[in-house]
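ARCHIVE CARD
Drawer: 12
Card no.: 0347
Subject: one protein chain, sequence and derived structure
Cross-reference: see card 0346
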Amino acid sequence: MEEVLGTGSFGITYRAHDRHLQADVAIKEYYPRQIAGRTGESLTVRPHSAGAAEDFEYGLQQFMEEGRTVARFDHPNVVDVRSYFEGNGTGYLVMSYYEGRSLSEHLEAQDGRLPEPEAVSLIQDV
């Protein structure tokens, strides 16, 4: 792992280097911090309680299913999922890495405003 690209309520996205492909990739880790975490220096993700275990397992299965589904897509506006796997008690999606900035960073550079033609273009691409 090279760096953390972002965190959300259900995961962490990292930039990593794939030694076999000699290319950077983005790796999304299922990490719902409200119900699971790591202890000490451990890499293993575990539910915080027995009660959270069922929700964690359900979320993990949904995350892996999302990986399987998106891996089947072949569209220029959908990120390329190269592989998905389980390890360290959780799941991971390995995706193509694209340089750029987030929409929030782009908006910040535009003083919080997005010209209508640009907004329409972004929405149509999605």
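Annotation on reverse: The CA atoms of residues 57 and 75 lie 30 Å apart. Strands lie at 3-7, 11-18, 23-30, 36-37, 46-47, 81-87, 90-96.
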